[in-house]
Amino acid sequence: MTAIANVWELARRNVRQSGILVAFVLIVALFAILNENFLSPGNLTNIILQYSYILILAIGMVIVIIAGHIDLSVGSVVALAGSVSAVLVIKNGQPWWVGVIAALAVGFVVGVWQGFWVAYVGIPAFIVTLAGMLLFRGLAARVLENISLSPFNTPYTDIAGGFINGLFGGNGYDVFTLVVFAIGVVGFAFSQWRARQGKIRYQQAVEAVWLFALKLVLIAAVVMWFAWQLAHSRGLPIILIILAVLILAYSIITQRSIFGRHVYAIGGNLHAAELSGVKVKKINMWIFINIGTLAGLAGVVYSSRMNGAQPSAGNMFELDAIAACFIGGASTTGGVGRVTGAMIGALIMAVMSNGMQLMGLDQSVQQIVKGLVLLLAVAFDIFNKRRAGIAR
Amino acid sequence: MNPPILEMRGITKTFPGVKALQDVSLSVARGEIHAICGENGAGKSTLMKVLSGVYPHGSYDGEIIFEDRPVAFSSINDSEAEGVVIIHQELALSPYLSVAENIFLGNEQRSRTGLIDWNHTNAEAAKLLARVGLAENPTTPISQLGVGKQQLVEIAKALSKQVKLLILDEPTAALNDTDSEHLLDLLRQLRDQGITSIIISHKLGEIEDIADSTTIIRDGKTIETITMVEHDNVQDRIIRGMVGRDLEHRYPERESHPGEEILRLEDWTVHHPTQTGRKVVDGANLYVRAGEVVGIAGLMGAGRTELAMSMFGHSYGKDISGTVYVHGKKVDTSTVPKAIEAGIAYATEDRKVYGLNLIEDIRRNISSAALGKLSKNGWVNGNEELAVAERYRKDLGVRAPSVLALVGKLSGGNQQKVVLAKWLYTDPEVLILDEPTRGIDVGAKFEIYQLINAMVAAGKAVVVISSELPEILGTCDRVYTLAYGRITGDVPVAQASQERLMELMTQEKSDQKENVQ
Question: Which chain B residues are closer than 8 Å to A65 by Cβ?
């Protein structure tokens, strides 16, 4: 009885998550119908390349938001990190990896700075990062001495624009891409199966074998179709590997590590977390160090993709990242949200931008539509909660 | 008896899957104080929400007759226009607005220009404050008043709306004895002025004191309405009606076999966090033995909670001095993790604000104070966690569809059990329970007492902080009394009586005044 109740309860609580997934599928379908090129190999590759840095920022942002904070400074940090990297690599002729490490270090230091003010001085993150937004934007312009720097050399531009292909040859399609994805799918299936075994060992309810298998086959089919499309284009984007590793790692960290659980506890009820022995200051500090470093990485990716650094780089990125989190089910009051949700939220933004661009819609129309989608997503969330509240 | 001012007939209210009210009838006579009793979740609040229009007409079956004509309220505004005003347990006042602004919030007093007439507003507010016996300036911000006074402001607000029927949902739950007494007196005065009141309360003594008649609700049904003057032993009768069985003993029996000393506190002094020089706890010494329940009794402001919280990770106060020993060894409790490590657990008095993550499920609340036990190298074993939560849910009898149910949706008693489970899982040596049964119905209280007994039977030490003296006398082996931050007595319960404890709790030494002001 309880076992069934448990499954039912989980399903009910994930309505929001699956709802947004359904919305994503519908949006993709809509654009696929409106434009035949939308699902073409080349365009799918483009979507990933175009929005990779927003996805990276959204990973860090969702953790900030779950803890009940906000970070408005990430766009400026992207600019600052990219600038430092560009000065080192382009101006001073350092190798590409020096630029990368320096950019990550800049992000880390930014995180320590902001984390200190939020966690140990107790200034609301909104204020600290609003100040940071101005501060780091100004610093970026200083570092670049108000001019743009370009171009980077090849290994650096490969980070965001490079592909791994041709390793196993192919006839019109890249076998290597397919192999990597196949390994991923098998690994995923294996981990799911192990999780299922674990649940059985603890005598929890699991879905029927056929349902389990069907789910896996469905996921595998979608993923392999995507791989097939990529293989027909330019192969496996390097940035996709970076993204996959980040998403996987942060999903596990948020769901299964003590750190992740403490983040949820702080966002859910700060006082209760404190009185349960959560080291709130330390956790807050690390949350900001984390997003700072990820913003540094996004700076590398963006400068790599732009093949240069400008003082105005990354303008308004924070808003895209924040929107992605809220579309993906995070709560404005903290305590609720998931990395996977934020990723779907970011992909919805990405797919919509790309789809509307393909249709040749004006920039202004795109902004209007995106604004409405954000509003409706959160309205849907509130509607859902209210219904759940009345139904007890 | 006067003719009824309010009759609710055959009220049935259904939520998806739950029949919250089933053919409930309620008849309230004009000019009486009518109490409504029932366990948590019995349907009292739902009934009042139906009455006040929170659940609009049409969302329930049955009819409401107010002042001899059927009414159909579709919002709170409708019911207030008719003179039905509800004061919720959680006060709905805006902390930074003044008393007068709060009283006339939503009902602003306009002059002919359409702007707010402040002179008129403040003058009217002053009149209303005089009626409720509150000697405060109408321009004082609400946040500067204590809960008792805020409650009076709520009543003044109700009076400003020409209230005929005043509904109070647990008005004294958060008040101390003096404030409660004052509030009840006020209700009697209002009754004499012709205002009818409905009062929802768990405090049976209070109901016996004030109510003219009492309606008992159980499982969404009316059990009976008692006219108080016609019966002796009304309290027993009410309890019987509420729980549907005789509660011979409100406190479970327990034999006391105290073992060796577990916790000792020496010369514990805590200063107020903002008022420099003020000692909130002053040189307290106490000890607790294994297998013993020790009570801490004191009036509000005596420093009970402050004593416990300062010991538990220095969560309250500053300039804390003194020594804590666990099993005779001096321990450092300066942070919460260290206190937990030392074997101390503290369940707060306000479980919703300080004890639980209400938007999280039962499972994760139970594990939240001892995640380390469930993890290796910083990774939590989710399966083990679920198993642990399931075990505690069964052991403590938490009534919920599953351990994945959100804690915010549980009743008070079940929430309290989750809090206990969370601290039991940290495997403490001594468990400090601050107001463990506040806002919990009679049946659930009994279960909490049984859990306390089980803990001491397992060789733990339990400290119970409570403002209800019968509870202290019923559950504890030994009682410390606190007055103005000092321990004024250490009384074995066999030699204690409410009168004796009250005497110690109000004992004021002449040399203390400078600390207390």
Answer: none
Nearest to B370 by CA among B331, B432, B313, B423: B423
What is the arithmetic mean of pLDDT over B459-465? 93
User: Is the complex ipTM more than 0.85?
Assistant: no
Domains and CATH numbers, chain B: 4-243 (3.40.50.300), 260-343+428-508 (3.40.50.300), 353-427 (no CATH)
Residues of B in contact with A385 (CB under 8 A): none
Name which of B16, B340, B401 is nearest A9 (Cβ-Cβ). B401
B355 touches chain A (CB under 8 A): yes
pLDDT value of position B517: 34
User: What is the torsion angle, in degrees rounded to the nearest 10, for the CA atoms of residue B51, residue B54, residue B59 and residue B61?
Assistant: -10
B511: left (phi over 0), alpha (psi -120 to 50) or beta: alpha
Quick check: B356 and A272 CB within 8 A? yes
Contacts of A250 in chain B (CB under 8 A): none
B378 contacts A275? CB cut-off 8 A = no
A-interface mutation test, from B59, B332, B352, B354, most A Cβ less than 10 A away: B354
Per-residue pLDDT at B185 exceeds 60: yes
Task: Identify the pLDDT of residue A1.
Answer: 42
If you average pLDDT over residues B394-410, what whole number do you get?
87
pLDDT, tens digit (0-9, with 9 covering 90-100), for B27-68: 999 999 999 988 766 788 889 999 998 899 888 999 999 999
Contact at CB, B357 and A269, closer than 8 angstroms: yes
Q: A with B: how many residue pairs have Cβ under 8 Å apart?
A: 113
Map out the domains of chain A as residue ranges: 2-165+251-386, 171-233
Q: pLDDT value at position B215? A: 92
Give the span between the Cα atoms of B488 and B252, in whole angstroms. Answer: 28
Least Cα separation, residue A185 to chain B (angstroms): 23
Burial label for B380, CB within 10 Å (0-12, 13-18, 19+), is buried
Q: Which CATH number fits domain A2-165+251-386: 1.10.287, 1.10.10, 1.10.3470, 2.60.40?
A: 1.10.3470
Tokens 């009793």 appear where? B37
Res B442: pLDDT = 75
User: Do residues B289 and B259 touch, judged by C-beta distance below 8 A?
Assistant: yes
- Burial of B299-327, coded b for 16+ CB within 10 Å and e otherwise, reads bbbbbbbbbbbbbbbbbbbeebebebbbe
Q: Do B380 and A335 touch (CB under 8 A)?
A: no
Q: What is the mean pLDDT of residues A49-69?
A: 95
Inspect the interface and report whether the beta carbons of B340 and A277 lie closer than 8 Å: yes
Mean pLDDT of chain B: 87
Identify the band that residue A61 occupies on the pLDDT scale cut at 50, 70 and 90.
Answer: very high
Q: Residues A180-203: what's their mean pLDDT?
A: 88
Contact state of A2 with B353 under an 8 Å Cβ cutoff: no
